[in-house]
Design goal:
Elements lengths: L5 E5 L9 H9 L6 H6 L10 E5 L2 E5 L8 H5 L5 E3 L6 E3 L9 H5 L6 E3 L4 E3 L11 H4 L6 E5 L1
Antiparallel strand pairs: 1-8, 2-3, 4-5, 6-7
């Protein structure tokens, strides 16, 4: 029996659409890890691996769902995307990514982001090696939680 995979979950109805998860994600994936430098001085700017979508009063965060059968991994032409059999984490080897965007097209959640400036993709990496992803740690309403299925 496979161990339950740790994933980021959204508490529906709790997200207020503040977009702080996106800001913290950009800073975490920046070179400087400093909010001012990440937004004002770094070029190209790091991409957020999480996106807040809003429709009326409803807001929700979208990021990699670490699918049981990830179409992004199966469609990757170069093998840049892989799924760890033990943890279930889908990760990218950036040096193998050729920027073909096949994974972007097949992701059912729209969670893989094309990084046009680097001709690579970006996706949630659970802020490895951090124990708790920054979006979860800094969500003011605790709308994002780290848990197992």
């Amino acid at each position: 029996m496979q161990e339950a995979m740790t994933r980021i979950y959204l508490k529906e109805g709790v997200c207020i659409g503040c977009h702080l998860c996106e800001i913290y994600c950009i800073v975490e994936h920046s070179k400087s890890k400093d909010v001012i430098k990440a937004f004002k001085k770094e070029s190209p700017r790091a991409l957020s691996r999480i996106r807040v979508e809003e429709k009326g009063a409803l807001s929700l965060a979208v990021q990699c769902r670490y699918c049981d059968e990830p179409p992004c991994v199966y469609s990757c032409l170069t093998g840049a995307l892989s799924k760890d059999a033990d943890s279930g984490v889908v990760s990218i080897e950036e040096q193998k990514c050729i920027g073909c965007w096949t994974c972007v097209m097949v992701c059912p959640y729209g969670a893989i982001i094309p990084d046009f400036s680097r001709k690579k993709i970006a996706k949630c990496d659970l802020c490895y090696p951090r124990e708790i992803p920054v979006c979860v740690a800094n969500c003011p309403n605790e709308a994002l939680v780290l848990g197992s299925r």
